[in-house]
Structure formats: structure tokens, C-alpha cells
Amino acid sequence: MAVSNAVGGSGGRGTNAAPWRNWAGNVTARPARSVTPASTEEVAAAVRAAAADGLTVKAAGTGHSFTPAAATDGLLIRPERLTGVRAVDRAAGTVTVAAGTPLKHLNHTLAAHGLSLTNMGDIMEQTVSGATATGTHGTGRDSASIAAQITALELVTADGSVLTCSAGENPEVFAAARLGLGALGVVSELTFAVEPEFLLTAREEPMAFDEVTDRFDELVAENEHFEFYWFPHTGSCNTKRNNRSQGPAAPPGRVSGWVEDELLSNGVFQLACTVGRAVPAAIPGIAKVSSRALSARTYTDIPYKVFTSPRRVRFVEMEYALPRAAAVAALGELKALVERSDFKVSFPVEVRTAPADDLPLSTASGRDTAYLAVHMYRGTPYEAYFAAVERIMTAHDGRPHWGKLHTRDAAYLADAYPRFGEFTAVRDRLDPDRRFANAYLRRVLGD
User: What is the C-alpha to C-alpha distance for residues 208 and 186, in angstroms, rounded to an integer?
Assistant: First the structure.
């Protein structure tokens, strides 16, 4: 990750910045300068200075998006110093954090206060603002994405002014900015709804593809959080069911947890992917071995230790959100595609769910949703596979994840999102000169 060359983190003028790269290494940006503000006031000063110099502005998190959503050749605002928990209100059930705070730090702080988010994604490396701006989600029958858990936010707009937004204050901006793609301004602070810490019991279990798909509706309905992974070139899946528990806590053993989460899921998998990249013909055989490597296990722990996992094998990813009723058919078509093609796919396909929510640009906006995510090991040609998968997803009214690879544009997305025009109207009002635009936003939102 490039180190900022900002002058003292003052929020003012920085020097020419080093190139910025995302986590997967598929996006590089060369900003004119970079700053590392430590406060909302410094963010506002940086935006005003950029405007005076005619520079566009983007804020970057930890680079876990696969799209160039944060790329800029203007001013890059880095998150390293805009961190920390600013307030914990147990009575209101909220926590307020600076926008650059990593989810890992938020989760650790909440646990120290005996609190937790209701739901979260499967990694903790992202910043809170980066995760919410792109629609990061976990899986849940009743609980939605991280952005849907925001109750208030602070937004630095194109003229350097600061808006505080909630359902009761600037409600139209709040509705859009909870998942704002960085298109409305720079989010400097977020307030999340939290609840008293609880325990989750996780049941991980191998299951045949046909059984998972036959029982999909039942498994989603019977579990608070259900997901599964299908291993291409096989008829095998690994399922995970997370449900609230009265306890007691029974985390994975130190050795067995290391074997599952580090040795198999990262170390051995890294080796398998490296071999597969060098010798693609070996991938189907490796997949059959990999699909049998993980065994059933059950453990109980606090939420972030169950929801999240270390992800050290680097990859590129595309994910589509489908109407939940279309999930099984689309996955069946994806399986048939792999079987009849020459594609060699070393990464499992991930399937998750979410309830309908009320965020204009949420991939679950207005409809119960299933997510199908495909991955390829970094450095492996992925374009043809992703293009073929995307044709299946768009045929089922799919909505692409904003932070993952896709080829959709504003014309497609305006039809896919009933409230698309509501979002772009807020953008037109807050940023008529497109201070926060870049090539990706021009493609997906129009100009």
C-alpha cells in the first residue's frame, strides 16, 4: 500500500503521491497528491484546497474493492489517521467511529464494551466507510448489510461544508449516503446501531451440491445465517449455519482452528492455487481433493469471531445479487457452464443471502436477495469466465456488487434499481461539478 506524502496530515496541500494499489493488485492509481487528515475539519480543508486547484477528490480505504471505485488522478484522501471510536452510547445502542477505522478495530472495541454489530461480512480488514460505501454484506435471513446498520453519518460535501445526516436530519442525503459509492462526498464519521454481545454457534458441514440446492429454501428459512461454497468441477459443497446460542462459548481448539483456518484455508489452498495457475489441467483433480479436505465442525463464540475469517490468498472477484427465488436456477446454469467449457476454476463459488432493505443503491434494495460470488486466483486469466458468468447473472435480473468486477453501466443499473434516480438526484444537488467523480462512477452512475 502506498505511503501518503501529505504534509503533516494537515488536510492541506500534499506533495506528489506515490502510486496507490488495491489489495488484489488489479487497480493502480496515480494521484497528484495524497493527504492523511486526522479530523473532519482537516478533511474539509483538503476538499476546499483540491477544489481551489481544480482537482477531483477520492477517499480510499484499505483497497479491498476490485473495481477502481477509489481511483483518482487528483487528490487521494488516505484513512490512516482518521480513525478511532468517538462515542459509545449504551442507552441508545449506538457507536460512533471515524470513517477510516478498520472493522477489526471496531469489532475489538465493541467486544471490550460487551457490544456487537448484528451482522457483518467475512473479513475485518476494510475501513468502516469503505465497507459501507460499496455495500459489503454478510449473509442473513433477517439482518442486512453493514450499511443498513448505520443510524447517522457526517459528510464533507464538494464545497467543504459538513452535513450531519440521519433519518431526522437531512434524511434524503442520509438515505443515499449510507451506501454512497463515494459519489456524494467524503464520509468522515459513522454511527452504527449495536446490541449487547451475543454468542453464535457455527455448524460447518460438507454437503452434496444436489442436496444443498434441493434444500436451499429450507436451509435459509431455518437458520439466522446460512451460506455455502460450491467447489467447481465437483458435486461437493461446504455449508455454514450460524445461529444465536445460549452458550457456553466453545471456540475452535487452538490446533484444530489453526489447521482449518490457516493451514487448509490459506496455506494449502495458496499452494493449490499456485499449482493450478502453473498447470491449469490439474485444477479439477485438486478441486476434488480440496472439496474433501474440510470436515464437519461445530463451535460457539462471539459474533466477529464466527462471522469473519482470515483471507490471505489473493484473488479477483465478481459477485451478483439476484432475486432469491432465482438463486438455485442461476447456480445450476453456472455449474453447467463450468462442466461444458474449458474453464479451470480453482476457487469455490460462494452463495449467501440478505433480506430486502431500504437503501437506494443496496444490492438488496427492495427485494429478498441471494448473492453468487465467483473468484479467480490473482494472476490467472479471469475475463472469459467472468464474462460468461455475468451473462447468466444479468439474465436473472442480477445487480453487480459495487466493489467487485463487472461490466454494467448506468443504463443497465438505472433499470435494475427502482430508486436509482433518487440517488442521482441527490448527487446532482450535492456535487453538480463532479468533484468526487472518476471513470468508474461515470460508467455506473452516468455524468
Answer: 46
Cell numbers given for 221: 428459512
Range list of β-strands (E), 209-265: 225-230, 236-245
CA distance 285 to 288: 5
Reading the block at residue 306, the C-alpha cell is: 464466527
Cis status of the peptide bond prior to 252, with omega within 30 of 0? no
Grade residue 256 by pLDDT with cuts at 50, 70 and 90: low
Q: Which three cell numbers stand for residue 397?
A: 435480473
Could you report the per-residue pLDDT of 184-206, keeping only the tens digit for each? 999 999 999 999 999 999 999 99
CA distance 447 to 441: 8
Identify the DSSP state of 19.
P
* Alpha-carbon dihedral 390, 392, 397, 400, rounded to 10 degrees: -20
| Alpha-carbon gap, residue 89 to 416, rounded angstroms | 38
Distance CA 200, CA 203 (A): 10
Q: What is the pLDDT of residues 345-354, one digit of tens each?
A: 999 999 999 9
For residue 428, what are the contacts with CB-CB under 8 A and spacing of at least 6?
none
pTM over 0.90: yes
Mean pLDDT of the chain: 92
CA-closest candidate to residue 152, choices 103, 102, 106, 89: 89
